[in-house]
Design brief:
136 residues, alpha+beta, 2 domains, four-stranded mixed β-sheet, 2 helices, 40% strand, elongated
Amino acid sequence: MDMPKKILYSWLFWGLVFIVCMFKACTFISEGMCSNAIYSQAFSPNGEFKAVAFSRDCGATTSFSTHVSLLHSNDNLANEAGNTFISKGSATLVNPSLAWHSNSNLRITFSNQGKVFKANKEYSGNVAVSYSENGS
């Protein structure tokens, strides 16, 4: 291989390595800036699943949001966004109420603070989720 191609491929290789490393670093830093504070949790009647309501704070440039994640009962809440429900406003304002009506049916009641970003109707094909706003 002639010298100019070696130099070009070397720059391309190291440039790609640099881009990948920067992407990983930015992802790590942004995830580390967020924190979750558990507001409440409720276990399914048979104890297989739990619903966890929590406030998520990702620093000064974003507002608080309320999340609900459905998890297997022995799993811990990860430092990530909710997998079932996300709404604008802290959990003390949104006031989510988690009620299991059966092993496979969860109802989330909340005070709408202006924007619901996620409201999944099922979890893992095993749990149906329904919603209602306080006062509705």
